[in-house]
Amino acid sequence: MNWLDDVKWGADGLLPVIAQEYGSKDVLMFAFMNREALARTAQLGQAVYWSRSRQRLWHKGEASGHFQQVHEMRLDCDNDVLLLSVTQLGAGDTAIACHTGRHSCFFRRLENGLWTTVEPVLKDPLHIYE
User: Quick one: which of 18, 65, 72, 105 could link to 98 by a disulfide (CB 3.0–4.6 Å)?
Assistant: First the structure.
């Protein structure tokens, strides 16, 4: 039996994935993988996701240079959510996971009934995807 057969894929053939930073344990982003993306991630040791908006495989960092080196992959108790332990790699010292130019996609916090931005932009997105 193939290890990919143990995964409970959604009706759309996708698996929810949480990318967590290896050192800090920060949750960097949430994405999806299909069977091919998960197999490629295991093969390459770098995160490959399924882009729902582009309807194609997306090797994280292919356009931005901000790759994710995978240290460990863990499947949850129901076999339907994947946790990646990653080191966010980037150009220079900037570890950017979010397309907004921030370290993490989870940069808004609920404060007094309002979503407040609490993480800075590390690099202007216009300069990330040149």
Answer: 105
The CB density around residue 72, as the number of other CB atoms within 10 Å, is 10
Quote the CA–CA distance of 33 and 73 in Å, as a whole number. Answer: 13
The whole-number pLDDT of residue 45 equals 98
Q: Looking at the predicted structure, is the pLDDT value of residue 44 above 80? A: yes
CA distance 68 to 61: 7
Tens-digit pLDDT profile for residues 86-118: 999 976 667 899 999 999 999 999 999 999 999
Q: At 13, give phi and psi (nearest 5°).
A: 80, 15
Half-sphere exposure of 88 (CA within 13 A, CB side): 23
One of 3.40.50.150, 3.10.20.810, 2.60.40.10, 3.30.390.80 is the CATH number of 3-128, namely 3.10.20.810
